[in-house]
Amino acid sequence: MQAARFMEVGRIEVGDIPDPDPVHGEVVVRVSHAGVCGTDRHILKGEFPSRPPVVLGHEFSGTVVAVGAGVTTHSVGDLVACDPNIACGACPSCLLGRINLCENLIAIGVQRNGGFAEFSSVPAHRALSLPAGLDLRSAAFSEPLACCVHALDVAAIRPGERAIVIGGGVIGLLCVQLARLAGAEVMLITRSPARQVIGGSVGAHTVAATPEEAREQWPRGADIVLECAGTGETMAQAPRLAERGGRVVIVGVLAKGEGVLIEPFDLLLREVDLRMAFVNPFTQSRALQLLASGAISTAPLVTREVGREDLPGILASQPGPSEVKVLVTG
Ligand SMILES: [Zn+2]
Ligand SMILES: [Zn+2]
């Protein structure tokens, strides 16, 4: 089968590798749609731990084509979305139910072969069946949406609060929709005019190009700030945009080893609550439900559909200012 593999820092190779066999406890999925994620770029640059050679792609949907021994939950023909994160189930965090904090966490498409291939073998319990009526294209968003659902759980928005979402990429645009569903008045901050337009179309009440513009609109700041851009600059700005007693949730990924200047004196005196939301603990089923019900729109977020052979070029360059989600199809 054709697959795009991460070989070493700086090198993605598209070529033929053997089809996966259905092993015990796993299902083989014919990949239908696979999303390109910022994490894939971090992996290629050596900024996120991986185990090359490995097929990347951790946001995908597809059809079950083979079922391994011992699998009773799935049949050939089932439509599924992959939850890429595999927790060990035995470490202290897992035993407390905090599976995203598993000490031995590995991810499909990061440390083991993922969805930038014709087929991918997935543990049956990580192949979530699609709710009735949900199509495979939308289902490819269930993993990033599940990360945002977790972020909204962490943010604990109450109806009527004001929320600022920093970053107009796919995570930001999904968080805008979830914050709106949670009853917040939502501002999106993004420099990109194209992303501002999409933000407005998916429910942001107002948009700003910069934190200064945001301040002009909401001088007191917001009850909730969701940092979804993952840059040093925006990480440093996020607490300053929080209202007194506000919450900041870090969702974006800043490269390992990079730091930012925060001012504990300011955070303390204003009791700004700094929170983290990492991946998708038990949230992907809800994400699938939100997609199936039509509460979250994904069509405006797909800016390009490409083939696997395009991946080396796409992953080696930063997304353009109007790019949101690139889907690999076929
Ligand atoms: Zn991702
Ligand atoms: Zn564990």
TrEMBL record:
The record's section on InterPro entries has:
ADH-like_C, ADH-like_N, ADH_Zn_CS, ER, GroES-like_sf, NAD(P)-bd_dom_sf, Zn_alcohol_dh
Q: Does the keyword Metal-binding apply?
A: yes
Which GO molecular function terms does the record list?
Answer: oxidoreductase activity, acting on the CH-OH group of donors, NAD or NADP as acceptor; zinc ion binding
Q: What is this protein called?
A: Zinc-dependent alcohol dehydrogenase family protein
Enoyl reductase (ER) domain span: 10-328
The UniProt keywords, alphabetically, are: Metal-binding, Oxidoreductase, Zinc
Its cofactor is: Zn(2+)
- Origin species: Rubellimicrobium rubrum
Q: Describe the family membership recorded for this protein in Swiss-Prot or TrEMBL.
A: Belongs to the zinc-containing alcohol dehydrogenase family.
